[in-house]
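During the first year of the project, the team set up a workflow for recording each protein of interest as an amino acid sequence followed immediately by a discrete structure-token representation. This format lets reviewers and collaborators read both layers of information side by side without switching files. As required by the reporting guidelines, we include two representative entries from the current panel. The first entry is reproduced here exactly as it appears in our internal archive.
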Amino acid sequence: MPKNRKYVKAFHEYIQTNEIEWKDGLIIENSRKKGELVTYRTFEQTKIEEGYRLIWVHSSAKEEQDKNRRESTIKKALGKLADISKKLNKYKLKTKEQIEAAVKKVCKGEDDFFNINLIEEKEMVKVQSTPGRPGPNTVYTEDVMSSFRLEYSLNEQAVSKAARIDGIFPLTTNSPMVAADVLKKYKNQPYLEKRMYTAKSVLKVAPVFLESPKRIEAMIFLYFAALMIVGLIERNIRKNMQKENIEKLPILPSRMKTKTPTWNNLNNFFRNVHMSNISQGENILSSTVKGMTDLHYKILRLLTVPAPLYPLYQNIKDQWWEFEPTG
């Protein structure tokens, strides 16, 4: 659910003054930090106006991320406020409007975290009324000269208030499943998004200009079939790697290794493999495959692709292009 929905704002205001009875959800290993566990808790409200269930989730990993992000933002803002304070009454920071605009730019979106006070000090000074060098007959007038001083401090109460919503995000669903199971389904979302990435980048799905519904359905079906084949290829090689206790394969550029080969990785790895045919009329006189290595054949075995489809590169003789004409 987007953050600008009224339900999100209302819950954030509620949790800042009320205690929530969270229920245990999931405990899984952090995908980015080995050995670290992430704890999820859930809290369910009554159904929203649209009729969907609204489930709030608290993540220990997201709580840490939100805290670190806020601390980093505050640290940067304090540093910039210190720079502004040093440059007051100079250059483009001479007027109240200029200073306030600079402070607003620095604290944009985080104004509540700071107590800022711009103090104006006025001083009467004598100013020469006419240009030129001052002399015994020079006339002076009194003028008011303004200077500014910036005082700022961290609003600890606002920071503490913001910390109460760290790690919290909402889920909406019409499923009757318990909250923990809804969360499990949600955690599977990145795998679905990965397939969308494959469709857009690898298969290069692009707008097509078709008017007939049958043609549109046919085009979508072809992309669906291709996406399914890609998924089966990746699933097959990873399962066989697990069976043979192969942790990584060096198929990435510069011989880097990967635990989870993708169709795009495999496609790029086989890009230098090519087949050459020499024919005379309708007869193929010679057919060879170049570029195959032991690792290529190992991957074919993991993909359960029959080896006879690729001629053994060891049997390719030197000057393979030489042949005797027939007929």
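The second entry, processed by the same pipeline in the following quarter, appears below.
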Amino acid sequence: MKQFWQELKYAFYVIVHPFDGFWCIKREGKGSIRVANFIVFMLLITSVLSKQCTSFAFNLTDKDALNIFKECLLVILPIALWCVAGWSITTLMDGEGKPRDIYISCVYSTLPLILLNLPLVPITHMLSLDEGSLYALVQGAAILWTAFLLFIATMTVHQYTIGKTILMILLMILGMALIIFLVLLFFVLIQQLINFIYVMYKEFSLRFM
């Protein structure tokens, strides 16, 4: 347990000192898969609490329509896509990051989303609608902080220049979109195949049975 807290403490160090933090993840093997998994779990908790417990004045979601499976997808899928697309593309573009480094650095970069958005849930019950700009400011700060950390993580883990990092991130986003397209296409084809088999079975049943 003590080791876990030490590893978690390092995740907080990374978001404050990203250059040194991500460098040590790459070169010294620091960072922890189990801490990264814990952060993903906390992201899910934060997402659910934000949609269920945020004050109605700032909550536009339908609480009765909350789907845990959907929330898991909304948290896990972007991380998985970023890691898969990142590893696939950077491998072709002389990137030095290993899958472990990419996953840990990606997940550690999302820690501000928890640190800023989770305390924001009870705070919304003390804010008036006129103070909504503060709510939007905190959410925007969490997104910008995370985006900055992802940029530094990509640049440091793969040893890219600033210009090449920007290019790689754009290619990674395109790669993520391509993966989504291919997966959707696969499921559409599978669905059509199942429908075809069903139609053939019905036709066979009507003629020979």
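For the second entry, the following points were noted during internal review. The chain has one domain: 2-168. The first helix runs from residue 2 to 16. Both points are flagged for discussion at the upcoming steering committee meeting.
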